[in-house]
Amino acid sequence: MFLSLPLVFSHLFLQSPNFSEFETVTMSPHEKSNLFMFFNTACAPNVIQSIIVDERKDSRWGRFGLHARMDIEPGQELCWDYYCSQEIGSMEEGFRFECACGARNCRYTQGKWAEHDKKMKESEKRKKIRKEIRRDRSYDGQSINSTRVMETSKRTVSNILSSVKALWNSLVRN
């Protein structure tokens, strides 16, 4: 499915001999001033980003495009989402800030970060517990499977019954 939205902005950004490999493209106003210094982030953006490959020149050349998701009034701030991912974990590095976009589905608020951190700590605890359980289930470095446990239990019960019979027989004889 091809998304056909009006192009708001297009910028020549990349000539790379390894365009087929995954690369992180940074457009920072600190390195080289460009129009991106006037853009802001929002969890419900009015523009979306895309990479437009120009096959006429070379497949290694691309353009970064911003497409309008809705009607944009003159003077209205252009906002795009730094990450399109719904996973907050993918945004953790580098984007831990208080968001002021006001969207109902805001993913960058401190409350969300605290919730994410709590889930990560719980996940680490569960991993540690599972590791301890696996370690406790091992005997002489070998995992104890249920068949081995059953055989051991049967022998133990059999030994107990033999001991009880021997004790009973000795009591009956006396």
Describe the protein's architecture and organization.
With 174 residues, this protein is an alpha+beta fold. The chain has a domain at 1-81. It is 32% helix and 18% strand. The chain contains two helices and seven strands, in the order βββββαββα. The protein has helices at residues 110-136, 146-173, and strands at residues 7-15, 40-41, 47-53, 61-68, 79-80, 138-139, 142-143. It has a three-stranded antiparallel beta sheet with strand order 1-4-3, with no helix packed on it. A two-stranded parallel sheet has the order 2-5. Strands 6-7 form a two-stranded antiparallel ribbon. A hairpin with a 2-residue loop joins strand 6 (138-139) and strand 7. It is elongated, with a radius of gyration of 32 Å. 5% of the residues are buried. The model is unreliable at 1-5 and 9-26 (pLDDT under 50). It is found in: Chromosome. Pfam families: SET. One of its GO terms (cellular component) is chromosome.
Task: List the keywords.
3-stranded antiparallel beta sheet; 2 helices; 7 strands; 174 residues; 18% strand; alpha+beta
